[in-house]
What we know:
Layout (H helix, E strand, L loop, with lengths): L1 H12 L7 H37 L18 H7 L2 H32 L6 H13 L2 H11 L7 H7 L18 H24 L3 H9 L4 H29 L3 H6 L11 H10 L4 H32 L1
Helix pairs in contact: 2-13, 3-13, 4-8, 4-10, 5-8, 6-8, 8-10, 10-13, 12-13
Amino acid sequence: MAGGTTVSRRRAAVPGFTPGPSRRAASVILEPYLYLSPALILLALTMFVPLAIGLSYAFRNIRLNNPFDTGFVGLENFARLIEDDNFWRALGNTVWWTGGSLIFQFFLGLGLALLLNRAFAGRRLVQALVFLPWAVPTFLSGLTWAWLFNPVIGPLPHWMAALGILEEPYNILSNPAIALWGPIVANVWFGIPFFAITLLAALQAIPLELYEAAAIDGATPWQRFTRVTLPFLAPTIAITVLLRTIWISNFADLIWVMTSGGPANSTQILATYIFSTAYSRLDFGYASAVATVLLVLLMLYAAILIRMRRTLMRRR
């Protein structure tokens, strides 16, 4: 063994000696990771280490009002979730909040993208106005919509009463039965530009020759939309819906500014429940358990959506 090692070292020291194919293949594989190692280490330190620490809190008793009792409790925090009515209500509100916001954002954003994809006078001005909500700070958006729903200083309750939606002008944010619709409306207004921007970029990448060929073959506008536009938009739709679902389910800013989860937890979602549990009740262990459940649910959703997208791409 010692003699073989000495020979190999001598060969490596000989000028003009080239390593074998296996060594060249290994160097080609490892070389990109060597260049990326500083970024990968920084990513691990800033993302994965805090994530691991946060997940570990879910199995410990972390209460700031009792900082000396931080022992390992196993699955006790998760057992508390099963009997927590506020958690189940927040989970149901999260599904309603995410689904309602996503559906309206997507279809309105798709409609705006189709409109802005056509040439008309003042299109650049309309594009600037459409993209404006995305540039407004979230706190300011929530505060503005809370004012708009206030019957004393806002017009919306009076308009809804005039249209017959409400019996009389009052703040819907104070009605537990319909309070969640206030943040949903604000979130729809805030999130439409995301779908409009991304879908408009995808529409402009579709070759015009395909529409011309479809028109020559006698395809109707609806057939051109379903047979040409939608197939090309499908990859963009899949990734935007996935990203926006994750963002909305974690989006506590609007609800916290407008209602703080009230009244009577009617607008409480998992994101706001985590925040209030951690920083109002100072129970970081239980808040981490709720956050872990939300993380697992979002990972399952992402895996299902990615699998569906791959299946559709294979069929195409």
